[in-house]
């Protein structure tokens, strides 16, 4: 199963990807997570990416295309993969097409998570993530048992640097301008399944699985 999770910042791509990994046993490829790991490791690419990410802008296409091309060739992608946060521009979608053709792979579906803008801002400002295992929480919608502590591993929860309100507004603008055109791009390819992302996390997950069975 080769999938893309498409949707604006805070739509629930990461949350849903984690649940799909458990169900299908295929890896999540999150360019956001990979870039944050590079920033943390202080690599040259990480240092360049940090300025873009902190302002809510996109990292240059050639950087992310290169990362994803390498990652898709790793052994654990043999049974399939869930792309989360990639592609985000038309050139990235075109590059993905040619990379998959080279590797003899095909996309099965593009899941588009649809959420109102006001809800997105509330989701992002309330998001907390575990520093140790990466598990996501929400102060209101998916709170940890003990404030500030990860239920899964006891790690410390933190707020992402780009989840401040002014950066969030810029990320939304960038999404509208550069990523939203991919909805009609994949509609034309006959791959798009639109899902109501305003529902509870578990309901969104079951709608995604139902759409994948139908497709
Ligand atoms: P990235 O990390 O990809 O961020 P994003 O796309 O902005 O998405 P988010 O991770 O913010 O949201 P999500 O949809 O995963 O939501 P989540 O499940 O966490 O990218 C960060 C930056 O990296 C970019 O700005 C860019 O600079 C760079 N970058 C990354 N990829 C790139 C690319 N391809 N090209 C160029 N640059 C790139 O949910 C959010 C919160 O809501 C959580 O707290 C969760 O608990 C809660 N929640 C989830 N679902 C629900 C629900 N149904 N109801 C209530 N609450 C919910
Ligand atoms: Zn944890």
From TrEMBL:
<feature type="binding site">
    <location>
        <position position="153"/>
    </location>
    <ligand>
        <name>Zn(2+)</name>
    </ligand>
</feature>
<feature type="binding site">
    <location>
        <position position="199"/>
    </location>
    <ligand>
        <name>ATP</name>
    </ligand>
</feature>
<feature type="binding site">
    <location>
        <position position="130"/>
    </location>
    <ligand>
        <name>Zn(2+)</name>
    </ligand>
</feature>
<feature type="binding site">
    <location>
        <position position="127"/>
    </location>
    <ligand>
        <name>ATP</name>
    </ligand>
</feature>
<keyword id="KW-0545">Nucleotide biosynthesis</keyword>
<dbReference type="Pfam" id="PF00406">
    <property type="entry name" value="ADK"/>
</dbReference>
<dbReference type="GO" id="GO:0005737">
    <property type="term" value="C:cytoplasm"/>
</dbReference>
<dbReference type="InterPro" id="IPR033690">
    <property type="entry name" value="Adenylat_kinase_CS"/>
</dbReference>
<dbReference type="Pfam" id="PF05191">
    <property type="entry name" value="ADK_lid"/>
</dbReference>
<feature type="binding site">
    <location>
        <position position="92"/>
    </location>
    <ligand>
        <name>AMP</name>
    </ligand>
</feature>
<keyword id="KW-0067">ATP-binding</keyword>
<keyword id="KW-0418">Kinase</keyword>
<dbReference type="InterPro" id="IPR027417">
    <property type="entry name" value="P-loop_NTPase"/>
</dbReference>
<keyword id="KW-0963">Cytoplasm</keyword>
<keyword id="KW-0479">Metal-binding</keyword>
<comment type="pathway">
    <text>Purine metabolism; AMP biosynthesis via salvage pathway; AMP from ADP: step 1/1.</text>
</comment>
<keyword id="KW-0862">Zinc</keyword>
<keyword id="KW-0808">Transferase</keyword>
<feature type="binding site">
    <location>
        <position position="160"/>
    </location>
    <ligand>
        <name>AMP</name>
    </ligand>
</feature>
<dbReference type="GO" id="GO:0008270">
    <property type="term" value="F:zinc ion binding"/>
</dbReference>
<feature type="binding site">
    <location>
        <begin position="10"/>
        <end position="15"/>
    </location>
    <ligand>
        <name>ATP</name>
    </ligand>
</feature>
<feature type="binding site">
    <location>
        <position position="150"/>
    </location>
    <ligand>
        <name>Zn(2+)</name>
    </ligand>
</feature>
<dbReference type="InterPro" id="IPR007862">
    <property type="entry name" value="Adenylate_kinase_lid-dom"/>
</dbReference>
<dbReference type="GO" id="GO:0005524">
    <property type="term" value="F:ATP binding"/>
</dbReference>
<feature type="binding site">
    <location>
        <position position="171"/>
    </location>
    <ligand>
        <name>AMP</name>
    </ligand>
</feature>
<feature type="binding site">
    <location>
        <position position="36"/>
    </location>
    <ligand>
        <name>AMP</name>
    </ligand>
</feature>
<feature type="binding site">
    <location>
        <position position="31"/>
    </location>
    <ligand>
        <name>AMP</name>
    </ligand>
</feature>
<keyword id="KW-0547">Nucleotide-binding</keyword>
<feature type="domain" description="Adenylate kinase active site lid">
    <location>
        <begin position="127"/>
        <end position="162"/>
    </location>
</feature>
<comment type="subunit">
    <text>Monomer.</text>
</comment>
<feature type="binding site">
    <location>
        <begin position="85"/>
        <end position="88"/>
    </location>
    <ligand>
        <name>AMP</name>
    </ligand>
</feature>
<dbReference type="GO" id="GO:0044209">
    <property type="term" value="P:AMP salvage"/>
</dbReference>
<protein>
    <recommendedName>
        <fullName>Adenylate kinase</fullName>
        <ecNumber>2.7.4.3</ecNumber>
    </recommendedName>
</protein>
<dbReference type="InterPro" id="IPR006259">
    <property type="entry name" value="Adenyl_kin_sub"/>
</dbReference>
<comment type="function">
    <text>Catalyzes the reversible transfer of the terminal phosphate group between ATP and AMP. Plays an important role in cellular energy homeostasis and in adenine nucleotide metabolism.</text>
</comment>
<dbReference type="GO" id="GO:0004017">
    <property type="term" value="F:AMP kinase activity"/>
</dbReference>
<feature type="region of interest" description="LID">
    <location>
        <begin position="126"/>
        <end position="163"/>
    </location>
</feature>
<comment type="similarity">
    <text>Belongs to the adenylate kinase family.</text>
</comment>
<dbReference type="InterPro" id="IPR000850">
    <property type="entry name" value="Adenylat/UMP-CMP_kin"/>
</dbReference>
<feature type="binding site">
    <location>
        <begin position="57"/>
        <end position="59"/>
    </location>
    <ligand>
        <name>AMP</name>
    </ligand>
</feature>
<feature type="region of interest" description="NMP">
    <location>
        <begin position="30"/>
        <end position="59"/>
    </location>
</feature>
<feature type="binding site">
    <location>
        <position position="133"/>
    </location>
    <ligand>
        <name>Zn(2+)</name>
    </ligand>
</feature>
